[in-house]
Write a structure and sequence with these properties.
Potassium Channel Kv1.1, Chain A, Pectate Lyase C-like, 2 domains, two-stranded antiparallel ribbon, 5 helices, Pentapeptide-BTB/POZ_domain, BTB_2 domain-containing protein
Length: 209
């Protein structure tokens, strides 16, 4: 494909009619983000994708340029990515909050918020049971009376969060940071509960228990 794009015919006429700049460099109107992994593959024979690069986008570029040697590997990555539950974001959480009727419990159980930034959000009373919250940032959030039953909160950041009355039965809190959090009974007299939770290397420095 690159040969076809650069081949000249009848003097200066180009088959693809590509534009050139003042130095004669040819403009290829394709995504540089998706082409970069292919360029590196052509350099050293290995496909390396950064976390933020979509395998589907790189596959589309490989198909366009006719780089056959990498297509099988990219197809496997696309299938693997499609079968993996997508991690939700702060924007998703805010959308859920905005769509919840006042006075009703926010229901988020079983969702994937791994590495999501949920800091300083008012999630009071939310049902986060069975959620994936690995490495999520919940610092400064209002988590009063939240349900975290069997949630995976390993390596999550709860620093300075209000966790009064939080229910964390059998939650995984391994290596989580819970510095300066409040785990007292809530105004509704609901006592915070961490019964059966895993607290391996959890940092509870200066927390109110």
């Amino acid at each position: 494909m690159l040969a076809k794009m650069l081949t000249t015919y009848d003097g200066d006429a180009r088959r693809w009619h590509n534009r050139t700049d003042t130095d004669g460099a040819i403009l290829v109107d394709r995504s540089p983000e998706y082409f970069e992994p292919l360029l590196n593959y052509l350099r050293h024979g290995r496909l390396i994708l950064d976390r933020h690069v979509s395998p589907l986008g790189v596959l589309a570029e490989a198909q366009f340029y006719g780089i056959q040697g990498v297509m099988d590997e990219l197809n496997q990555l696309v299938v693997s990515e499609d079968s993996r539950p997508k991690s939700l974001t702060r924007a998703d959480a805010i959308r859920f909050l905005a769509g919840t009727v006042s006075g009703c419990r926010l229901r988020l159980q079983g969702l994937n918020f791994c590495r999501a930034d949920l800091s300083y959000l008012d999630l009071s009373g939310a049902n986060l049971s069975h959620c994936l919250l690995r490495e999520a940032n919940l610092s400064g959030a209002n988590l009063t009376n939240c349900l975290f039953t069997r949630a995976d909160c390993s390596r999550a950041n709860f620093d300075k969060a209000n966790m009064a009355g939080v229910q964390m039965r059998c939650a995984v809190l391994d290596r989580a940071s819970m510095v300066n959090v409040c785990l007292e009974a809530s105004a509704e007299q609901l006592a915070a509960n961490l019964e059966g939770s895993s607290l391996r290397e959890t940092n509870l420095e200066n927390s109110y228990l």
